[in-house]
Amino acid sequence: MIEPIRRSTLEERKKWLAEAHYNVFQLKAEQVYIDLLTDSGTGAMSDRQWSELMLGDESYAGATSFYKFEAMAKKIFGMPYFIPTHQGRAAENVLFSYLVKEGNVIPGNAHFDTTKGHIESRKAKAIDVTTDEAKDTQKEVPFKGNVSLEKLEKVLVENKGNVPFMVLTVTNNTVGGQPVSMKNIKDTCALCHKYGVPVVMDSARFAENAYFIKTREEGYADKTIKEIALEMYKDADAMTMSAKKDGVVNMGGFIGTRNKEWYEGAKLFCIPFEGYVTYGGMNGRDLNALAQGLDENTEFDMLHTRIHQVQYLASLLDEYGIPYQRPAGGHAIFVDADKVLTDVPKEEFPAQTLTCELYLEAGIRACEIGYMLADRDPVTRENRFGGLDLLRMAIPRRVYTDNHMKVIAAALKNVYDRRKTITRGVAIEWEAPLMRHFTVQLKRLG
C-alpha cells in the first residue's frame, strides 16, 4: 500500500517546528516529507501478512491466533513459554514488574530508553557494560554492540546477590544499531550464569543481528538465519521483544522464557496490565500477522534487501564525507553530531540541533539518540553527557526507495556544508522527569 507525501516550504517548516517546541515527536505526520523517526511499527506488511489478518481469531481466551504465534515463536527462539503484549515496552513492564526491586543493579549493553526507564522508575540502577570500541564512531569493528566481559564481571562481583538479570540487546540500538557476535552472546551468558545471574535478551532487531553474524562472523556463512537465531537464544533465560521492528507489524510484542517460575510470575502482571495471557493486548488478527512476519523476516533475502538499503545510504554519506557510526547498522544510519556541529556545545544538545536542521532543510524527520535521550542521572539530576550524541535516521522496512535515500543524503549534505554557520543549539524549557525526549519542550538559541 502506498500513500502520497507532500512537500512543504521552508517557511511552513519553520512555523511547524516552532509550534512543536523544536521536538520532532510533536510534529504532525502530514508536516513530514520523509519520516525516519523510527523503524518501529512503520514497516509495510506483506501480502501474506495481510491475508493472515483476515484469518484472525478474536476469541478472548485460547484463540487459534495465539497458538499460531506461539508455534512460530517456539520454532525461532526455542523457548517453551511465551506471553504476548501490545509492544516491547509493555513486555518490559510486565516482566520487570515481577523481577526488578528497588536498589537492584542491572547491567546491559547500552540499555535503550524504555528499558532504562523501566529500571530507573523502579528505583533500580542500569549500568552500561558495552565495549569501549563503540565509543569511536569512525573505527571499523564488525561487532561494536558487544558486551565488555571485564566491565560485566566487575558489576557482577561488586553487586553479588543484587543483580536480578542482565539485559543483552541485539542489535545494540543506542550505540548505532551495532550487532553482537555469537561468541560474545555465548561468553556473556556463560559469565552471567557463573555468577548465578540470568540473561534477558532485548530482541527488537534479533533477525538483523543474525544477518550480521551470518555475513561477518567466521563459521556462520552457510547457516540459515533461523538456525543462527536458535543458537543465539540457546543459552538465554528470557527475552522481551518489540515485534514492531523485526516482526514487521504495526503493533505487538511478547515475552519469552525458559523459566517456569518467571512465566507464572509474569502472567500475574500481564492480566491486569495487558489482558488475558493468550492475547496480551493484541488482536487475534495481529497475532496472525506477527507469526507470518517472524517467519518471513528470518529469511536471508528479505534481510539482505532491507540492510542493503541502509548500506546504500551510508555509501552516499561516504561520498559527502559525513561522519556516522561505522560500520552502518541494520536499521538506521547514526550520524555523529559531535563531529558535524563542532561549534555547538554539548550543553546545547548538538544531535537535537542537527535533527531540527535536517527537518528545516527538507522536511525529513529523524531522531536524536544522544544527550537528550540519555536523560538526567536519577540521583544527581545532572544531564548525562558521557555517551555518544547521534542523529538516527531509521529506515522503515519495505517503505522507501533508493531515490528517497538520495534525497535524504543530499539534504544532510546541505546541512553539513553549512555546519560552520550553526554555532548555537537548543535549551530545555520543560521536561518530564522520565524519558523526557518524547515530550520535551525546547527553545532555539542564537
Detailed description of the structure:
- By secondary structure, the protein is an alpha/beta fold.
- The chain folds into 2 domains: 10-32 and 300-444, Aspartate Aminotransferase, domain 1 (Alpha-Beta Complex); 47-296, Aspartate Aminotransferase, domain 2.
- It contains 16 helices and 14 strands.
- The protein has helices at 10-19, 47-53, 64-77, 88-99, 113-120, 149-158, 182-194, 206-216, 225-233, 260-273, 284-296, 300-320, 337-340, 350-362, 371-374, 402-417, and strands at residues 34-35, 81-85, 105-108, 125-128, 166-169, 199-202, 238-242, 253-257, 332-336, 364-365, 367-369, 390-394, 426-430, 441-444.
- The strands form 5 sheets. It has a 5-stranded mixed beta sheet, with helices on both faces. Strands 9-12-11 form a 3-stranded antiparallel beta sheet. It has a two-stranded parallel ribbon with strand order 1-10.
- Helix 5 links the parallel strand 3 (105-108) and strand 4.
- Helix 2 runs antiparallel to helix 11 (284-296), helix 3 runs parallel beside helix 11 and helix 14 packs across helix 16.
- It is globular and about 60 Å long.
- The termini are far apart.
- The model has no long low-confidence stretch (mean pLDDT 97).
Question: What tags apply to this protein structure?
Answer:
single chain, 446 residues, alpha/beta, Aspartate Aminotransferase, domain 1, Aspartate Aminotransferase, domain 2, 2 domains, five-stranded mixed β-sheet, three-stranded antiparallel β-sheet, 16 helices, 40% helix
